Amino acid sequence: MELMQAMQARRSIRKFKSDPVPQEYVSQLIEAARLAPSGTNLQPTRFVVVQSEKARAALNEATPLPFVTKAPLVLACCVDTDSLAGLGTRIGELKEAGAFVDTPLDKADSEGYSKRTQMDKATAQAYLRLNAAIAIDHITLRAIDLGLGTCWIMMFDQAKAKQALQLGDNYHVVALLPVGYPDQAPAARPRLSIDELIIKEL
Fold first, then answer.
1. What is the pLDDT of residue 104?
2. Are 8 and 191 spatial neighbours (Cβ–Cβ below 8 Å)?
3. Interval 150-189: pLDDT, tens
4. Per-residue CA distances from 23 to 47, 53, 63, 73, 107 (Å)
5. Which residues pair with 180 in a beta bridge?
6. Residue 52 in contact with residue 22, Cβ under 8 Å?
7. Which is deepest, 61, 63, 97, 181, by most CB within 10 Å?
8. pTM (whole model) above 0.85
9. Radius of gyration of the chain from Cα atoms?
């Protein structure tokens, strides 16, 4: 499917068929996330692949939306807060790969760059979530290409979700993404016009 077609076809799906998602497709969804761009190549996004009835039942206690865990697959999309400690390493990898050639960053050392990009806690959390959001969007578009539907869910209890998913303190759940074959065909949602999106042209 051509990319623009995938973007036009994407819908939030809240009713799924019971057919399981093939393991090959699960791998392709995670691969789509792996290829997503990431600030300073930090790659902080991690996933819990929830497929068993037992695991979905446990996760159901964390959200008031029962359709989430009725999907045959739920991807719990998380960020690893410990990944921030590897910022210098990631920047070094970018330099070695030639990402900064012909920019002022090419002359900066990795340690110095890391110090200049240090963030307070709130900024760091927002930075991690933004990186996860890009990866999740890659998944939603690849899902469409594979004939699957998804729905980005942020209505859940963080503590209960982490307990159900058996996650350590360094993980933060950004979104739950139910995935499956759609059992509905929603109409296109209303969208603002292009003119309404552009504040000004300079």
1. 82
2. no
3. 999 999 999 999 999 999 999 999 999 999 999 999 999 9
4. 15, 16, 25, 10, 44
5. 149
6. no
7. 63
8. yes
9. 19
